[in-house]
């Protein structure tokens, strides 16, 4: 600092046009008074003598209408300004380079513009010019990362008590506000909730989840979106026209994709391209400079995979290694490429889902047209698995080659829908296949008249179990009793499920008007439950409600091995289920279509279920 204060000589010299050495930089020479050392500093200037300004600063939005991709924020803030509903604290959150700080400056200009509080700043008055240059004494831009202590917040809190010097509002812009300490946030709470009328707070952050809920509840929050690829390309095309640069849309798409939704990152990459290529940038130069994977190489690799060209797949990997791409980065780009193909083959309007330029979308449509979504999905699964394996492997090229070879040599599969359709056609007889084993023994076709002819009554009765001789009246009474018993148990299950579940295991020994005799297996839980006094009383009440008269309930024990008592409802259901299962097994075993399906697929029947 001492040497800087003791300048005794300072000369600024520009390049001599007669000199043989034509340096594009002017030089500032100065001497110090202490030692007399001579120093020189060179500054790059343009041809008109002004320092070069990068594109991200030169084309920074100065009005709400110039904001790209944040129309929802612009419209809300403009409506709030027009209606006079401007809050005292705002929180702008979003990814890097999407316009948070630019929006904060535009809002500050609209509030302090000499032309009045309007929804667009004039950018010509001294207030707007000072805020644009960052020299306004009433607009404070603070970096939250370097001014994150409680003392910094206390100084800020003390300074905002005073009125602005020559503006309408004092505006505090804190960038990366999530970097403030806990004590700094606590010191800011009261002032943030009830600030003076001449103070506005604007916070910007990329990580809003790190802010205390007490801060979030005191701010109007605006979430900034990532700028879409199409809007970034349109903005770059506009800037290229103003700068007089010749560049293709595909090269602009590569630059925009490099930005990953950030307009500032895209402009920085574009600035780098212009520094390398000048006013004429080719696709090859852009690919080489920004290190992006060439889309043509991705298309060539996917074509070799779908054509089962193993030689071509390995040659593509060799090109990747020769160019110097990272193998995992190429695999991830290939995964994204196959995802685009899958979306195109899966939906009717892929442009609503994919963030791609129109030219790229048309090219991907041509690539995906010959293939089905299932083919693309199977290969995409292999690439995703390879990417996870490459994260922890040292021989990433080998893993990529193995994955691509597996993808290229996948056997074609028949969709299950087609197989089911063929089986349905075989079952209905719509497809005639002479090679089927049951074709030779197929019965002759039956006419409609024969189908309507009644079948003759068989003269021989089927064998049946011989029962003891009983009176006809007893048989009728027993059948009707069984049906009544089933209805009664259903009625009890609706009223008292606990008692009904016990009665399901009982056998109706006698069912007459005014008397009901129920048998349960001896020494069983159900017998004990039914003989309980409370249960008997409840069953008697339910029987009276069901029959409409007083009914005597008797519970007896029976020996199941005698086989004299009728089956209980549980036993009857079990018997009917077993009989139905046997019938299904016989039907399945003799079904020609099922037998042929087992022969074709080499399968076995493991389970039979009735649908």
Can you describe what's shown?
The radius of gyration is 44 Å and the shape is flat. It has helices at residues 2-5, 55-58, 71-83, 100-112, 126-133, 150-159, 182-193, 213-216, 229-243, 249-259, 263-277, 283-290, 295-306, 310-323, 327-346, 358-368, 373-390, 396-408, 416-428, 448-452, 472-495, 497-503, 525-531, 533-547, 569-589, 592-601; strands spanning 7-13, 27-32, 38-42, 89-93, 139-143, 170-175, 199-205, 220-223, 507-512, 515-521, 552-558. Helix 15 packs antiparallel against helix 17. It has five domains: 2-42, no CATH class; 55-223, 3-Layer(aba) Sandwich (Rossmann fold); 229-290, Orthogonal Bundle (Helicase, Ruva Protein, domain 3); 295-408, Zinc Finger, Delta Prime, domain 3 (Up-down Bundle); 472-575, GMP Synthetase, Chain A, domain 3, CATH 3.30.300.180. The chain has 611 residues and is α/β, with parallel strands linked by helices. 25% of the residues are buried. A five-stranded parallel beta sheet has the order 5-6-7-4-8, with helices on one face. Strands 1-2-3 form a three-stranded antiparallel beta sheet. A three-stranded mixed beta sheet has the order 9-10-11.
Strand content: 5-15%
Could you give the count of β-strands?
Answer: 11
Count up the helices: 26
The amount of helix comes to 40-55%
Characterize the largest beta sheet: strand count, sense, and whether it forms a barrel.
Answer: 5 strands, parallel
CATH topology of the largest domain: Rossmann fold
Alpha carbon gap, first and last residue: 92 Å
* Tally of distinct domains: 5
CATH architecture of the largest domain: 3-Layer(aba) Sandwich
């Amino acid at each position: 600092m001492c040497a800087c204060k003791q300048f005794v000589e300072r000369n600024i010299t520009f390049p001599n046009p007669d000199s043989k050495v034509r340096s594009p930089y002017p030089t500032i020479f100065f001497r110090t008074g202490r030692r007399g050392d001579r120093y020189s500093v060179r500054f790059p200037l343009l041809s008109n003598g002004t320092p070069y300004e990068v594109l991200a600063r030169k084309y920074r939005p100065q009005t709400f209408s110039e904001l790209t991709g944040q129309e929802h924020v612009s419209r809300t803030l403009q409506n709030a300004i027009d209606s006079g509903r401007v809050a005292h604290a705002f929180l702008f959150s979003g990814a890097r380079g999407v316009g948070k700080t630019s929006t904060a400056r535009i809002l500050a200009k609209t509030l302090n513009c000499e032309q009045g509080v309007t929804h667009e700043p004039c950018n010509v008055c001294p207030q707007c010019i000072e805020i644009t240059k960052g020299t306004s004494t009433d607009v404070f831009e603070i970096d939250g990362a370097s001014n994150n202590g409680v003392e910094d917040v206390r100084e800020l809190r003390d300074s905002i008590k005073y009125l602005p010097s020559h503006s309408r509002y004092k505006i505090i812009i804190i960038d990366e506000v999530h970097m403030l300490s806990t004590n700094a946030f606590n010191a800011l709470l009261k002032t943030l909730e009830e600030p003076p009328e001449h103070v506005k707070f604007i916070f910007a952050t990329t990580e809003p989840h790190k802010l205390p809920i007490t801060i979030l509840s005191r701010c109007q929050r605006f979430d900034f979106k990532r700028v879409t690829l199409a809007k970034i390309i349109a903005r770059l095309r506009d800037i290229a026209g103003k700068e007089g640069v010749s560049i293709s849309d595909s090269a602009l798409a590569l630059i925009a994709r490099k930005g990953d939704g950030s307009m500032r990152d895209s402009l920085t990459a574009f600035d780098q391209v212009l520094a390398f290529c000048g006013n004429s940038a080719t696709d090859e130069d852009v690919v080489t400079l920004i290190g992006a994977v060439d889309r043509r190489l991705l298309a060539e690799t996917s074509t070799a995979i779908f054509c089962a060209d193993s030689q071509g797949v390995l040659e593509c990997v060799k090109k990747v290694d020769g160019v110097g791409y990272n193998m995992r980065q190429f695999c991830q780009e290939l995964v994204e490429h196959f995802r685009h193909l899958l979306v195109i083959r899966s939906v009717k309007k892929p442009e609503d889902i994919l963030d791609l330029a129109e030219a790229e979308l048309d090219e991907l449509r041509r690539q995906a047209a010959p293939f089905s979504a299932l083919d693309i999905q199977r290969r995409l699964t292999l690439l995703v698995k390879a990417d996870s394996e490459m994260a922890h492997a040292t021989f990433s090229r080998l893993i990529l080659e193995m994955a691509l070879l597996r993808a290229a040599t996948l056997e074609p599969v028949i969709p299950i829908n087609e197989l089911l359709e063929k089986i349905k056609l075989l079952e209905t007889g719509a497809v005639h296949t002479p090679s089927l084993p049951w074709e030779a023994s197929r019965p002759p076709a039956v006419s409609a008249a024969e189908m309507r002819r009644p079948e003759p009554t068989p003269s021989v009765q089927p064998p049946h179990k011989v029962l003891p001789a009983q009176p006809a009246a007893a048989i009728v009474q027993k059948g009707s009793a069984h049906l009544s018993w089933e209805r009664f148990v259903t009625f009890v299950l609706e009223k008292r499920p606990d008692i009904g579940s016990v009665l399901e295991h009982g056998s109706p020994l006698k069912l007459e008007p005014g008397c009901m005799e129920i048998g349960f297996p001896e020494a069983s839980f159900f017998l004990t439950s039914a003989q309980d006094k409370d249960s008997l009383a409840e069953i008697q009440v339910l029987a009276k409600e069901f029959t409409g008269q007083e009914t005597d309930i008797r519970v007896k024990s029976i020996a199941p091995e005698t086989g004299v008592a009728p089956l209980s409802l549980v036993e009857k259901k079990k018997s009917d289920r077993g009989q139905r299962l046997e019938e299904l097994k016989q039907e399945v075993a003799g079904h020609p279509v099922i037998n042929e399906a087992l022969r074709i697929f080499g399968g076995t029947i493991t389970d039979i279920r009735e649908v």
